[in-house]
Amino acid sequence: MSNLTHVELLWLEKRIENWIRFGRHAEEQILDKRRRILSFSPGSIFAFVRWTSNDFGTVISRIDIVRAVPSGQRCATVPYVRPGGDILLRLAGWPKVERVLQIVDSVEALGVDPADAAPDYWHHVHNRLSVNEQPRSYTRSRHQAWLHRRRIAP
């Protein structure tokens, strides 16, 4: 049994688009020109974006920021993600998804890979966006504090 978390990506132009916004995958399996599976090591963080439309417009816009879990560990289910993961952020609706994508861009603008940002930050973004407040931005000093805490944590 694999210890990896597998994410199925599908791209049917203008109908279904599932993609990874950030994260470092451990393996990639190409199934055909429209489908592939990315696999993530336990503990790695990735952003999974799902968008679906029909003849009348967008049906689903969703973003999940997930931490991959080791096999056998308790986890939440996420469509297209096997076995699931520790959900750090889950939002639906294009305005919220777009705002999170802008926040991801701002973290990258600091020179920090969003996959390396403090998991607590993604929880913070979720809580602030759910009540329509502006989230505090991620800063270099906040990132340095996270790196120090991670180094000394058991």
UniProtKB/TrEMBL annotation:
Pfam family, one: DUF2840
Domain of life from the UniProt record: Bacteria
Entry protein name: Glycosidase
Gene source species: Bradyrhizobium lablabi
